[in-house]
């Protein structure tokens, strides 16, 4: 039985060629001004063959999202195997995230112009981005699960993986706009906020924190509710 497109060794090489070509053209021409025909011509392929592997530019970007996530997972294995405290596990995952995406800084700035549109399928919150978003959220669940000093209320623990994913997206957004040498401002922000998050989590079991924690979690639940009739 023939394997699906891109699943053979040659197919994977072809997919990689198309993706790398697309990323190059996105950087040079911008996302909106790059066509599938231009990608095919630059890759030395027919337009039909290119569509065989990727149905659209959006699918190419989703492949990029997934590839960077897989690259990140690979370098977090050592962190999650050796670090045992919540603070250091989260710090390690965030450090490796910034290291993994750094080569794509210029492209991320180009892509942001489109991905920032709430209606865009490239938006990290879109349905199309769902699979990669869910896998990334699972990574933060593993950060918590393997922490020997994990001690927090059950209601907070249930919400933390998604909240940590949102936090990491905030750091990525700051990184996209960071023009400091070596993205030093992003690194400083990440290091300090990881310490703050670990400290807040450690305090979450205190009785005085109960009302605040519950109010925050109620707000999170309300924000998940669908908006009806255009009301806020």
Describe this structure in words.
The chain has helices at residues 9-29, 36-43, 47-53, 57-82, 86-101, 105-115, 130-145, 154-177, 184-203, 210-224. The protein has 232 residues and is mostly helical. Helix 1 packs across helix 4 (57-82), helix 4 packs antiparallel against helix 5 (86-101) and helix 8 (154-177) packs antiparallel against helix 9 (184-203). It is built from ten helices and no strands. It has two domains: 9-55, Arc Repressor Mutant, subunit A; 57-223, Tetracycline Repressor, domain 2, CATH 1.10.357.10.
List the helices and strands and how they pair.
Layout: H1 9-29, H2 36-43, H3 47-53, H4 57-82, H5 86-101, H6 105-115, H7 130-145, H8 154-177, H9 184-203, H10 210-224
GO molecular function: DNA-binding transcription factor activity; transcription cis-regulatory region binding
Organism: Longimicrobium terrae
DNA-binding region: 35-54
Report the uncertain regions.
Answer: none
Shape: elongated
Write down the CATH topology of the largest domain: Tetracycline Repressor, domain 2
How many domains make up the coordinates?
A: 2
What is the CATH H-level superfamily of the largest domain? Tetracycline Repressor, domain 2
The class by helix and strand makeup works out as mainly alpha
Strand content: under 5%
Number of helices: 10
The radius of gyration is: 20 Å
Average the pLDDT over all residues and give the rounded result: 92
Helix/strand order: HHHHHHHHHH
Determine the N-to-C terminus distance.
Answer: 53 Å
Helix content: over 70%
Number of strands: 0
Specify the biggest β-sheet. none
The appropriate CATH architecture of the largest domain is: Orthogonal Bundle
Class of the largest domain in CATH? Mainly Alpha
Protein name: AcrR family transcriptional regulator
DNA-binding region: 35-54
GO molecular function: DNA-binding transcription factor activity; transcription cis-regulatory region binding
Keywords: DNA-binding
């Amino acid at each position: 039985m023939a394997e699906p497109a891109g699943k053979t060794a040659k197919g994977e090489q072809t997919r990689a060629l198309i993706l790398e070509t697309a990323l190059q053209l996105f950087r040079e021409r911008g996302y909106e001004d790059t066509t599938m025909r231009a990608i095919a011509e630059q890759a030395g392929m027919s337009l039909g063959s290119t569509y065989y592997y990727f149905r659209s530019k959006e699918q190419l970007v989703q492949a990029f999202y997934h590839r960077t996530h897989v690259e990140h997972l690979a370098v977090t294995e050592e962190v999650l195997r050796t670090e045992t405290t919540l603070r250091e596990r989260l710090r390690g995952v965030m450090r490796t995230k910034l290291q993994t995406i750094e080569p794509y800084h210029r492209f991320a700035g180009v892509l942001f112009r489109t991905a920032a549109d709430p209606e865009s399928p490239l938006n990290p919150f879109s349905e199309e981005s769902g699979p990669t978003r869910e896998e990334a959220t699972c990574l933060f669940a593993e950060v918590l699960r393997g922490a020997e000093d994990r001690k927090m209320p059950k209601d907070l623990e249930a919400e933390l993986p998604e909240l940590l994913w949102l936090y990491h997206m905030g750091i990525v957004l700051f990184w996209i706009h960071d023009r400091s040498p070596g993205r030093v401002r992003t690194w400083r922000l990440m290091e300090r906020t990881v310490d703050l998050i670990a400290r807040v989590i450690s305090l979450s079991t205190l009785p005085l924190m109960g009302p605040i924690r519950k109010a925050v979690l109620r707000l999170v639940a309300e924000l998940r509710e669908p908006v009806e009739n255009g009301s806020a």
